[in-house]
Amino acid sequence: MKLExxxxxxxxxxxxxxxxxxxxxxxxxxxxxxxxxxxxVVCIGRKNLTQQEFIKHLSVEQFIRNQDPQVMQDLxxxxxxxxxxxxxxxxxEFIDGVNDVQKKYGCTQNKLIxxxxxxxxxxxxxxxxxxxxxxxxxxxxVFEKPFGADLASxxxxxxxxxxxxxxxxxxRVDHYLGKELVQNILTLRFANEIFSGVWGAHAIxxxxxxxxxxxxxxxxxxxxxxxGAVRDMIQNHLLQLLSFVALEPPDDDVAESLRDQAxxxxxxxxxxxxxxxxxxxxxxxxxxxxxxxAYRMEPGVAENSTTETYAAIRAHINNDRxxxxxxxxxxxxxxxxxxxxxxxxxxxxxxGSGGNGGEPNLIIIRxxxxxxxxxxxxxxxxxxxxxxxxxxxxFCHHCHFGPNTPEAYExxxxxxxxxxxxxxxxxxxxxxxxxxxxxxxxxxxxxxxYPAGSTGPEEADALLEADGRRWLDEEPAAAxxxxxxxx
Length: 487
What we know:
Elements: E1 7-11, H1 16-31, E2 41-45, H2 51-58, H3 60-63, H4 69-78, E3 79-83, H5 91-105, E4 111-115, H6 122-129, E5 139-143, H7 151-161, E6 170-172, H8 180-190, H9 193-196, E7 204-212, H10 221-246, H11 254-268, E8 277-287, E9 290-292, E10 310-316, E11 326-332, E12 339-346, E13 362-368, E14 372-380, E15 388-396, H12 397-401, H13 408-418, H14 427-443, E16 448-452, H15 458-465, E17 479-482
Parallel strand pairs: 1-2, 1-4, 2-3, 4-5, 5-6, 7-11, 8-16, 15-17
Antiparallel strand pairs: 7-12, 8-9, 8-10, 10-11, 12-13, 13-14, 14-15
């Protein structure tokens, strides 16, 4: 079933986000025959490029593999490039350019407008698009993260854009919520009674949420050195993952109820204390046999920078379901391995073979790179009646569904096109998360050094060891059977 006809307008179209994610996502939506013939794509950029120069600049061959020539021709045929500088451009010329595309197609007044832009020019751009005719169709405006830099700035930004936009028109992106395995958290919980019945403090000992990166700051040093791991990752991605794991079941109005419940989790988070937080900054080291420089030696980073490239916290949710269950969150750059996962660790079983309860059961949700869900259970070791071992029942997502399942931004664009707010944080969630993070930054100690290629600062291990726990970086070795074969 095709999506509703609409004009797609992308601001910041010459940037990496558009080239790497947005344009390829539109290609795949066209390939799945989801876009009507009346879905033009207007790309707005500051660079003074011709249409042909812009198409060449997109370098689609780098970001779209195994291209279908007909689909690519369809995509290119939809694109119109308009050069416009927000500082010096003439708004009338911009409006005339968009209206010309409107007249060319003449079949829709709906507009999806994507801000692949810095937060600093959100308000100015909203004022510009407010001059476009929207009386005879809907408009949906997509804002990339970060939405603010703290609670005060998030509130100011929202107040400014809400002068022109209603909440129903606003879609605040956290691309982690577009990932297949993140969306599957809700399905795992609410479509499987064997899990929903044990999802709480009576059965779960603790939760570990990890987003580990081997890369450094790359070309983002200017942005990153002003923000750090807490603002870049904790405030949005990791707290969103925590919300999905911890929220209460939604009611019939699923989209808004999900957002209600996610915000309720944020409100129930206990304020952090200094002992709950470990910050770090990577030094030089070795990753994959390659020597890498320290953070302070990266181009664009201040030589005396105290910006954190690693953050770990111990969070507690003060409600009936989760009281007493710690959530350990960690993220960092230049770590030993690249992976993002959630480990639900169940209470130790005391009733086992020969009185040996074995290792705690685990649910492992692998977000990347090897997407899937695994369940660690205890079995008796052959020939040893008093010995149990922990093994995995492992579901491989791409093995079962194939490698071409939607990328995060494809899911995000489709949800906006359908008017579905489920995967987009609401302003109250944004404010609650910033309130939590502002407290974190206020009470945290200065970052400690950790070598590139390690698992992070030793103090992060102590965060769990103080509770008699450890980071679970090694999974049980063997699989009982692969759930991907059951189809």
